[in-house]
Design goal:
Layout: E1 5-6, H1 8-30, E2 37-42, E3 49-52, E4 58-60, H2 62-67, E5 75-80, H3 83-93, E6 99-103, H4 106-114, E7 124-130, H5 139-148, E8 151-157, H6 159-165, H7 176-186, H8 191-195, E9 196-201, E10 204-209, H9 212-225, E11 236-239, E12 245-252, H10 256-269
Parallel strand pairs: 1-3, 2-5, 2-7, 5-6, 7-8
Antiparallel strand pairs: 3-4, 8-12, 9-10, 11-12
Helix pairs in contact: 1-10
Length: 275
């Protein structure tokens, strides 16, 4: 099978998540009254390893990084749609009983199989990575996670995919399929009012396209106002070697201490997104 080649920005993302996962597991492992059962969830897990585009070497992906965290998470839930990637990850993990690997659509599996196992009332908590390859995530997943109050989320907001396929300066040419993907990710079609505004011009009104930052800020407000997350700090833009934003990395939580830790980590890596 062919392994994904990842850019330097993806290595930065992995470092951010690895650092926070260690802090998260340490804090939750210390809580004893009551004790909490904390788990790690990766909805687009891949085969467990990637190839670094800058060095050509194999690097550990999110699942392997999570399995190495000390103190350890109590359980791990890995999901991917690609059968070959799932099989490779299973071979790496072996017969560990604390690891659950699923092949299928995470939009269905997260809600039906995973989130039901991390209910607040059962003293269960989860750190969930939602890192789609593009607009392959449904808003229902985010809103369900926010309403549980027990799940913290790292989210890939794929602004490059949005700009390439949906947020055109001439929106009339966008395909119905891409509009449907955008609606599913955003949760409705209100993104249109955010992405495009009309302003007076020399020959009538001109349609002005919003900036990446404006679109990301509107989505951040959706995570708080609609999904119900209490703390969603400003996301960190992940940039390619030309300085273009590939995606924004969001974090959403219900705990102020979680936001404080992530802000520190984001600030540490904010200017390391290009090379």
């Amino acid at each position: 099978m062919r392994f994904d080649e990842v850019g330097y920005w993806s290595e930065v993302k992995l470092a951010i998540i690895r650092e926070y996962a260690a802090a998260y597991s340490c804090i939750l492992s210390r809580q004893k009254q009551p004790s909490l059962h904390h788990v790690y969830v990766d909805a687009f897990s891949g085969p467990g390893v990637h190839i670094s585009r800058s060095t050509g070497d194999f690097i550990a992906g999110s699942p392997l990084n999570a399995l190495l965290v000390e103190p350890p998470f109590k359980e791990f839930f890995f999901i991917d749609l690609d059968g070959d990637k799932v099989q490779h990850l299973r071979e790496i993990v072996g017969d560990r009983t604390d690891v659950h690997i699923y092949q299928g659509d995470c939009n269905r599996l997260l809600i039906s199989e995973v989130f039901t196992r991390v209910k607040w009332k059962d003293y269960r908590r989860a750190l969930c990575l939602l890192d789609p390859y593009g607009l392959h995530l449904n808003w229902e997943v985010l809103e369900t996670a926010g309403k549980t109050r027990s799940i913290e989320v790292f989210l890939n907001f794929p602004v490059a995919d949005m700009n390439r396929n949906v947020l055109w300066r001439n929106p009339e040419g966008v395909s119905e399929d891409d509009i449907a993907r955008m609606n599913a990710y955003w949760g409705d079609n209100s993104w249109r009012d955010i992405a495009y505004t009309r302003r007076p011009g020399l020959f009538g009104e001109d349609e002005v396209k919003a900036t990446n930052k404006q679109v990301a800020e509107a989505f951040r407000r959706r995570l708080t106002d609609i999904a119900g997350f209490a703390y969603v700090p400003e996301p960190i833009p992940m940039k390619n070697s030309r300085g273009a934003i590939v995606y924004y990395l969001f974090f959403a939580s219900h705990k102020p201490v979680a936001e404080h830790i992530v802000k520190q980590i984001f600030d540490k890596y904010r200017h390391r997104g290009t090379r």
